[in-house]
Sequence to fold (743 residues):
Amino acid sequence: MMTVFCALIYFALCTGQHFDHSDVGSTANLEMGSFELFKRVISDNLTNSLTILLLQIIVILITVRIFSFLFKYIGQPGVMGEIVAGIVLGPSLLGYFFPEFSAALFPPESLMNLNLLSQIGLVLFMFVIGLELDFSVIKNKLHETLVISHAGIVVPFFLGVVAAIWVYTDYGAQQTEFLPFAMFIGISMSITAFPVLARIVQERNMTKSPVGMLSIASAANDDVTAWCLLAIVIALAKAGSFVSALYTIALTIVYIAFMFMVMRPFLRKIGETYANSEVINKAFVGFIFLFLVLSSVATEIIGIHALFGAFMAGVVMPMNLGFRKVMMEKVEDISLVFFLPLFFAFSGLHTEIGLINTPELWGVCLLFIVVAIAGKFGGCTLAARAVGENWKDSLIVGTLMNTRGLMQLVALNIGFEMGILSAQMFVVLLIMSLLTTFMATPMLSLVEKIFAKQEEKAHQHEKVLLSFGRPETGRMLLGMADLLLGHRLQKSQLIATHFTLGTELNPTKAEEFAEESFIPLREEARQLNLRVDERYQVTDKLIQEMVRVAKREHVDYLFVGAGQQFMQDSSTTPGKGGKRFAAIARWVKQLKDRPLHLPGTLLRQKLESIMDHVDCSVGIFVNRGFTRASNILLLVDNEDDLFLFNYARTRLGEQSMTIRICFIDEQADKELQAKIMTDFVQQDPNKFVLDRPLTANSFIENKETLLVMSYVTCEKLSKDQELFAKLPSLLIIRPRQMNREEV
Fold:
């Protein structure tokens, strides 16, 4: 078939060539060589609008990812790095040092395409912001929320208007009338970056705390009020006078009333229909997106910007959690990962830090920074204190509400596009926004450090910290803590932490993970009649956060889980792959002398890093098919291991089973054996038995055996990989007084 049809195609082409005329065709192409013609085609392809746009997207996405990683590494929200990446791609850095490359990559005629894509991304992003608002949280703390959020708007708004009087003559009179200029400056001072605040609260494990819930509720209320005020400012700026703006304001009120009184009940009924559906069909998703676009178009037509319509479309969506989660999953990733970086880059292309080039302009910049911090941080802190919060929580609320970040950048771009802000004022307010957001994380750490001493004085009971990856490991760690500490656990404060890697996790998804991760632990705690303080946190720095929690809580005992290959060299472990696999494994080990990180486990180097920085006792549970502790082997190697008998007498001793004491092999210290026989076995023969050495002990083959040893002995034992691989589940203890430097 292929042969026949290829022959027919060839015959048809040959027949068609008879219609060619000698005067058709480019003489330039005839004179040009084949390679020169190929280069010309490549050159034309590189300069067409689609290729330029795709290259811009590639450069933007790579740069944004790099800066996001760097800012997360220094403890800042990733979105801060993305905003800075946009500035770097603009005339402030790339255009200043590499003007030719910048002009080739971002030619002026190509910016319209970039702008349109970024605007679509902003519409989707504002829709997600509206979806994330939880009105139930606002209702629960309505009085406190209203006071704090309104203080966080009125005070900075007033100070912003006063500052506008100071700078209007020099930096605003040429742009617009004083009224829209002053009101826009006031709005810029009043906005709180709700998404940045929510992720900071999530990263610092404050989501379920009273101060975290109060901050989120206040920021949500602040955002709704601030965006409504921004809509009024836009109406004033576009109408030109207050009287003509009243028509736009009236239409805005009608629009908001229609959205809440008509569309919200209608969408609620639809949401109830799809609440129990396993999959939301494409027709319904298409309807939601159509509604989003119609809402955005309506607000753009009446003169208050399409972003406000997208925000309101998200706000009036059904409150059904499953519905909102599905919609956020469909929209959030593409808007945050793909579209928003384009917006950052476009913003950076008209941000030139070099415009702030005089002492007077730097003075104006400093003025706005001071006014912003005094208005937002000061106003919210005092308001929180006035509604009954203590000074620590009040300072935390003020610090969180002072973050402006991305939401400020959105508002500034609106002002710049409308001609309300000059390029110089745009840069001044952008620097203010970046600085106030950047200071949030260090300020929170400072507040915690200041009040840590007071909390340390109030520390009376022992604290036990369980840190686990897989949910089932949490249940087992609680069992190990109960086995080791016995009745003392009933009098201790018990804290369980579960960390999820990745700070960009959606708060709704994080809440679902937090609920599911502690289910096995809760069941075990209920059986043991224990109360556990659950702490869930998302982070990009697992070890640092674990250490920080242990230090902040002043814990006495830390229990962590490890994988089956803990302290085991995979290159010498018998198994599939033979000598070739072992050789490859040894070669990989030479390149990187650390084992691979397996999901849900903490391997040797990570645990050693933890023990280097905490001064509490550490218990490491290595699960090797553990079911229950029917047999306990207490491994002793030298006199330093005698501390284990403190647990054996007072905690493990509460258990009904016999504790079997053993040494590694027959060459054990005879004096140490005699001491153990005299001090422990003979004094309590019903509890302690001196058993056969580990190398000849049959109990190590039993899955219900728990082998208890010190960390130093475990390090020694791990050198014999063949023996170490045969051991049952391990409970390895590093006591408080044995820091690794002392070992």
